[in-house]
Amino acid sequence: NQMVTDDGRKYIQVIESELDRMDEILNEFLVLSKPTNRTKQFVCITSLLKQVIEFMQPQAIMNNISIHFLHPENKENCILGDSYELKKVFINILKNAIEEMPNEGVISITQSVTSDSKIRISIHDEGKGMSKEQIHQVFLPFYTTKQNGTGLGLSHAVQTIESHGGF
Known about the structure:
Blueprint: H1 6-33, E1 41-44, H2 45-62, E2 65-70, E3 78-81, H3 83-99, E4 105-113, E5 119-124, H4 132-137, H5 153-163
Parallel strand pairs: 2-4
Antiparallel strand pairs: 1-3, 4-5
């Protein structure tokens, strides 16, 4: 029966944290490299976004951030898609927005219908913004401005949106 010292516990926590991070990176690689075989089903975008906002609300509240969601009432908003992949995209975008506003702010999500009956989703935050160079590279795989980022989140987002007929 051996006892672990306080220093030993700290090292174990660091090891566990790094293993979790490696697992997360590996999963992102697998998602990007392997096509999914899920069948697409009808997904109601308003409902999906409400679920994502509810999921992200605790992290937003902890950072004094409010999320405003404007959407048309009583409008058809269903698409043929993969709700799991779409949720991952919106969670990633909201997570990025929250991380860019460390003190407080507002994230505005606006859902509308275009003249050619497509669903448009705009997400605005009050972060510091990006340079023109960053904007040109932000969707490229492995490009990141974060110290611990993989640069795969927004690349995956673009891939998912394009596979759903978006741009």
